[in-house]
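For the sake of transparency, this paper describes our internal protein records without simplification. Because each token names a local backbone shape, the row as a whole describes the fold. One such record is reproduced below, unchanged from the form in which we store it.
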Amino acid sequence: MRSRFHQGLDELRARLLRMGGLAEQAVDRACQAYKDRDLNRCHLVLEGESLINATEREIDEMAFDLLAMQQPMAVDLRFILAVTKINSDLERVGDQAVNIAERVMDMAELPAAELPVDIPRMAAAVSAMVRRALESFIEGKAELAQAVLEMDNVVDRMRDEAFISLVKAMNERPDVTRQALDALLVARNLERVADHATNIAEDVIFWVRGADVRHNAGIEPNVPQGVTDTN
């Protein structure tokens, strides 16, 4: 029974990694679509949403079955709980990618406009956060997850700078108001992706160290690098 249980945990991990790959791909496609005004990539993002949603349901069902049938404890219990929360955040990452694709489709109908915002730079930072958060899960390393938490402040500053610059552009150049609003919404969607990456990182820390660091509510135990809690 224990062997079957750990096989179930391995399968759950594999399914979540597949989910992570789908979500990361959706964000990358949406951001590239913004950069190139590429409607084909937008349609790929929209078409991929149903697979992300279906995968989310499969992972939740598998996790709930493991909880109900095996009654895990300690680190195994934390792992399954973390997977269910990470799964939800990854589905929402996919939703944000869809939102970005829809904004790009709107912008494609408008004349191209030079805007005082570097969306590709912000997208690169956000993609790095998602990638690092997934790496922290794959490797089970709280140090990598902690780095994601620190990166969130950088993205927040980018979002604030984009807001200030785009509002100023709308006031000075009313003819680009709609394009600027779309860019502002894209920046907001990217910031939300960063928030979900942060949530994933917090859940990895909870799984590995048993520490709740959400909203600075908990203080991480002083665990030496490379050592994890296995109790």
In short: Residues 2-216 form a domain with the Methane Monooxygenase Hydroxylase; Chain G, domain 1 fold (CATH 1.20.58.220). The longest helix spans residues 2-36. The chain is about 80% helix and 0% strand.
